[in-house]
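User: Can you model how adenosine monophosphate sits in this protein?
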Amino acid sequence: MRRFLLGNEGIDGDVIAEAARILRAGGLVAFPTETVYGLGANALDESAVDRIYQAKNRPAASPLIVHVAGVEQARQFAVQWPAAADALAAAFWPGPLTLVLPKSAAIPDRVTAGLATVGLRVPSHPVARALLEACDFPIAAPSANLFMGVSPTDAAHVRTSLGEAADLILEGGPSEVGLESTVLSLVSERPVILRLGMITRRQIEAVAGPLDRAGEHEAREGGTHASPGMHPRHYSPRAALLIAGSGDPVPHGRVVRLWWKEEPAEGQGIQLPADPAGYARELYRALHLADGCRPRYIVVEAPPTSEEWEAIWDRLRRAASR
Ligand code: AMP
Ligand code: MG
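Assistant: Here's the modeled complex, given as structure tokens:
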């Protein structure tokens, strides 16, 4: 496994070309995206995709998100492309939104865990974009961590979690969004959110009209379009995670804190930003850091409960579930 730094110094075309060669030859490349780091394989190469499942110890029933360079490539791999997909792509791509659509036969069943649908996303991170531009195939990539663990938001987390499993790790600095993408199904009449993310219900409804919340409930209960991210215990640190407090809005100016060690009152803690975007960006880093101390408990102060915090609450609840 080799590592390359492709952060602030600009993107090295030779390194990107090398990464594309590895993927074309059936290898695995970990790469930065704005949500979390992904473990990528050529989405059209079934045995390369198999290696992702093995490396992560991921159950075969969990479909992978397919990353594409742009809308045109996305359309190639979906057999239906409703008007809402165009509107959503125009509003949120490149960015942290995955669209689930009926899949084309070119996408192997292995990628979608046998589902007739495929999750497609155009990431915005410049390294991810450069890599996708250099490949003449889409890249299947789940988060670059062991199944059920906390997703990596920088290259060091990938190394700790997956060690030598990746043939190459591209380093692109800390992930800006820090939470996994919003996953939105467009296969029924109304869009259904399958996984919450930092692109909120309200933002999606403003572009695509009312969401089907009944369908959402069904999906969360394990319906046809069940998502791996819906596993109740997911995104979990090794330590037990406790959410302290009522969840009432944090008064203006008060810091939201993630504590670790057995006694939060002892004052060992990581201060997280008080705004939802900042909090999301720092949350997994803080969980990785806290977990690295091998504590028995990690105590998170309950953040506010307004809509912009909904995805954060989703991840906290899953992380706290045993
Ligand atoms: P991750 O390991 O973070 O990449 O998680 C992959 C996510 O992709 C899951 O949470 C699913 O919601 C979503 N996903 C990918 N493909 C599909 C699909 N065909 N149908 C439903 N959800 C999908
Ligand atoms: Mg994951």
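A couple of observations from the model: The first strand starts at residue 2 and ends at 5. The chain is about 30% helix and 20% strand.
User: Helpful, thanks.
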